[in-house]
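User: Sequence in, structure out. Go.
Assistant: Echoing your sequence, followed by the structure tokens.
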Amino acid sequence: MRTVPYIICRYRIAVDDTILSEVGQRQFFAENQGQNATYYTAGEKPNANALVMEFERIDTAKFEGLSFQVGYQPGYRRKTGYNPSADQRTFELVQDDHIKSAHVIAIPALGCMAIEDRNNENNIPQSIAVKGLRSILDFMFEDASFDVMHLTDGEVTNIVAGWELIQYDYQVRPLNPIRLSDFNELRSEAMKADRVAFDAGRLKPLSGETMQSSGGLVTETQQMVDAGYGQSGIRAITPEGDEARVPKAKFHMDKEKNFAEREKPRFLKIMFESDDGVVDKEKIVDTIGRFYGTD
């Protein structure tokens, strides 16, 4: 079965410096669906439109969720033609009413949401969806803000500790001047002996099994990462049975730059199964509800 990727995050909607209530959020999305809001674009390109579509409540036994599409209508497209007399391609901007979109599910009571993250002819990535929502709020209110908070590095570590690890990506450099475990000391000296700048790789489990960090290669490599000598990323199976992905942060040879990268937000992507492009909305509500409802 095919899957659809969603970025999981916290969010905050405020109007006149006051957090918009659960009721206020429901009313806002219900009353403003289908209304075009100006989406400002950079450079000389025409401004686009953003709009909310297909709003509905998705209530489960434990959580009250909101489901809607964030639409993005560029209003134009770049048309490529050909001038045979000059034997050259031609380029021009032509009007186009095509709408791309991203599916969003939010739980206002917990301030968390899942944002579809695809980029193709009919879909927009989560970054454009976030900007689209911000444009809609700015258009409808004089003083509104929409903030998205992704995971911290520490939150990622705590969350994935109980998940079934199916892939571990890493990039590490030799230690200098600190010492860690005997294993990492030997590993570091071996890299130095062969004049290796860094070691990059991917660990995967035996067929039909999952990995775990219990004192072996994953644990030892992560020790180097935690000391600032590398970066790592993972794929794991959540308790609900979905695949989750946390990409590896950008690697630097400089230890302090590695620490700085880990201070940046980490993106958690969960791959939800879909039936011909249709996902189980109730499952997404329950998944993000359990994910953020344990604080």
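User: And one key feature?
Assistant: The chain has a mean pLDDT of 91.
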